[in-house]
Write a structure and sequence with these properties.
Elements: H1 6-50, H2 62-72, E1 73-79, H3 96-101, E2 106-108, E3 118-120, E4 122-130, E5 133-144, E6 149-157, E7 163-170, H4 184-187, E8 205-206, E9 220-221, H5 228-242, H6 248-256
Parallel strand pairs: 8-9
Antiparallel strand pairs: 1-4, 2-3, 4-5, 5-6, 6-7
């Protein structure tokens, strides 16, 4: 076959594609375990952050994060429908997002403003434990904004009503607008707000414009300037996961049990 013939060119290109494909596949397999470990580490860091167990600007090694997490956080898997502890599941190995995508371990969510399509049968709850007692609850939350699904965590005080913090670790919202969900100044407006009204109905919402101080305006948070749809999305997703289809049954049992 002539070196510059069409057949030679096609054959050479095919060979390069095969070799590169094998290389990429091999790299993906080789790095898969490390990627999974980094994902788990980032989740632990996010939980520590929303729980107030990492200070702004604090530099922690991977070992520091793992130790602080294990020293302060108890992870539990609960049945969303009943709010009771799930049996026979390793909480530290449980992948909620994977379970949510699997029809065998999830159900179709009822129509909802947060645009959550499927609900896992079981979900993670992170408990901040101090002196042998639960000090805070950290709940995974998600829902649709303007362009993307936002994934984050919501922290509640041991009364299961007072918000201690919120954070989003993955989203595709517009930088400088909806992307301001990452802004520490905006996230600092959440602590002290109330997730539920006195009758137990989720009431917290992100409003258009400015809200008052938490003690005077407990159910509202400042809107994100120029990002009304993202602001509404945050309101919808937080209310959804605090409601009956989310962690509502669990939080009700938690309060009834005296914060056990």
């Amino acid at each position: 076959m002539a070196q510059h013939s069409t057949g030679y060119t096609i054959g050479f290109a095919a060979l390069v594609c095969v070799v590169c494909g094998i290389g990429v596949a091999s790299a993906a397999v080789a790095l898969g375990e490390r990627q999974a470990e980094n994902k788990k580490l980032d989740q632990q860091k996010q939980v520590l952050s929303v729980a107030g167990l990492i200070q702004d600007g604090e530099k922690l090694t991977a070992d520091d994060i793992k130790k602080r997490f294990s020293d302060n956080i108890k992870v539990e898997v609960v049945e969303l429908k009943t709010g009771t502890p799930a049996q026979g599941i390793d909480a530290l190995a449980f992948d909620q997002r994977k379970a949510q995508k699997d029809p065998a371990t999830s159900v179709v969510a009822p129509p909802n403003p947060a645009k959550v399509l499927r609900l896992p049968n079981n979900a993670l709850v992170y408990k901040v434990v101090k002196g042998g007692k639960v000090d805070k609850l950290i709940l995974p939350i998600e829902g649709y904004g303007l362009w993307s699904t936002l994934y984050g965590f919501l922290a509640l005080d041991d009364d299961a009503r007072t918000i201690e913090g919120i954070t989003f670790y993955q989203h595709g919202e517009t930088p400088g607008l909806g992307g301001e969900v990452d802004n520490p100044k905006w996230k600092a407006l959440w602590p002290g707000r109330k997730a539920y009204d006195d009758s137990g109905v989720p009431q917290i919402s992100v409003i258009k414009g400015q809200a008052g101080p938490a003690k005077d305006d407990p159910y509202h948070v400042d809107g994100l300037s120029g990002a009304t749809i993202t602001s509404n999305g945050v309101s919808n997703l937080v209310k959804f996961w605090l409601g009956q289809d989310g962690f509502g049954p669990y939080l009700k049992k938690f309060k009834a049990g005296g914060g056990a």
